[in-house]
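Re: the request from the purification team.
They wanted to know what the chain is likely to look like in 3D before they choose a buffer screen. I agreed to run a prediction and write the result into the notebook, where they can find it.
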Amino acid sequence: MRTRGWIIPAAVLVAASIAAGTSAQPAGPRAPAADVRPEPVIVELFTAQGCTGCPEANARVEALADQPGVIALTYAVDYWDYLGWEDTFARPEFAQRQRAYRRPLKLRAVGTPQVVIDGRRQVAGAAEEALKVAVEEESLRRIFPPEIEFREAGDHVGVGSGRAPAGGAEVVAVIYRPGPQTVEIGGGDNRGQTVRQVNVVSAVRSLGAWDGRPALYALPTGLDPHEAVAVLVQARADRSILNGAVLPPR
């Protein structure tokens, strides 16, 4: 038996209640809403605990994470650390992922907060109305993306057939902790503030190439029992995301 993972939205991973502090634990998954679209919109927030404009963007993305049909992911970047606070969630590879969007999105530079939607467009993180419009427009864009199925054992994921983009695509596993986490900032421009972030990413791993033919991929092992895995099928050349699905914590 296989689990049709592509119908699982990020909303089923968000806590039903929120506890304060970094040890906050999300509640168990809820049943998917009846009107969930089969291809979720992938919302990637690039943020930093030391960025003065980021808390508002964090809140905007957290609100989106509760919506059916949205997979929201928060990547902490490290290039704000020089201001006096070392981001507790940041990793260099997250900044590299952000920079990989610069050329396809025709940007002169990257900065925070930045929201990238389906790898196709960006929105200033705190621009609430523009963010809502972009998500809605992207939800209507995809036609016949490759299906994603998680095996019941949770150790493999299958990607179905479809039209491969020019340059091919890769299957990526984004490991993250569902729900909100809060951090007390002890230095830098946000000193004394409590910063709240949702669905914080801890690692990004490539599972392999996808060339349009059905393929099976081994999922990362040894995960924290509270972590989820978002599997994305992403074009190598223009970085557009063809489809995504979430395997909740097991």
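For the purification team: Residues 1-37 have pLDDT under 50 and may be disordered.
Please add any questions underneath this entry.
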